[in-house]
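Proteins fold reproducibly. Look at a concrete instance:
___
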Amino acid sequence: MSVLPKKNELGFFEIRLESIGGLGANLAGKMLAEAGVLGLGLSGSNFSSYGSEKKGSPVKSFIRFCDPDTAIRDHSPIEEPHVVGVFHEALYKTIDVVSGLRADGIVLVNSSRDFDVIKKDLNLEYGTLAIVDALNIAVEEKTKVNTAMLGALFRICEFLDPNSMREVIRKTFEKKYPHLVEPNIRTFDRGYNEVQFKTYEVPEGAEGKTFVRMQPLLGYETQELGGVITAQANSILKDLSGSRQGFLPEFNREKCIDCAACDNVCPDFCFVWEEGEDKRGRKQMFLKGIDYQYCKGCLKCVEACPTNALTDLREMIGYAEANRVKQNFPYTAGGIL
């Protein structure tokens, strides 16, 4: 039986996974707990928290481990984890992913960027930062990000046995998807071997991050009289960039024939058009660019484009902001046409 390296006052070693729907954090939490409980004889529990169960929406998965003789009577969300796994870097924009992290805690991030840059983005002062390029591994092995993240988590949690996880992967996929067993084991092994660490010294007496529970904007003290919802019933003001799972469309104006096939399949307001004249002087609408605020990275436009004017590109930090062509919605902004 494994020995837990750290415990909180209730005797638990706690892990919190921060992700968005579609990256498999919910399944990863289940498999992680199963490997510890059934494979190693630990007591453990797993559950997830999410709003609408759809691709791109925020998801949290919680895993607790404790000694076999410790009863688990706490089923509340994990607020002070020993380990945090961040499946998607865009979560930094809207969620404090390291909220409540202990001073000597470990943060695992799916990224290809430098340690110090990520540390600054996370507002992390001390502790251990682990980085694994789970997206690149998943693309090369034609699997999902969650299996590579599991491999890195097993490297972090040394009390867990990687062989027990490989057996869980086999049992999970061999009946319905036998062709995915070996690619997922390779993905797990690469995540385990390719994760990198950097420790920032923890000062004596340092305290962990303060946990802040998100509060709704409207409550019984702040809502309008009569419960009136004053927000407009549209998504024009929303930033959907956090839904992207690592890829976005890249636009090449020179190859574009302005056929609007991309706009026909786009589920949002991504494509920006402007009026102009063709070579014969006839009025026509020309595609100006992409408003990445509304792009969820579904890449339907790439599939529909007949000229390869749109191609899929692995998203780099700052690319969307630098290449965004803004939509003009004057009525929403209070102006006139």
Q: What stands out?
A: The mean pLDDT is 88. Residues 40 and 82 are 19 Å apart (CA to CA).
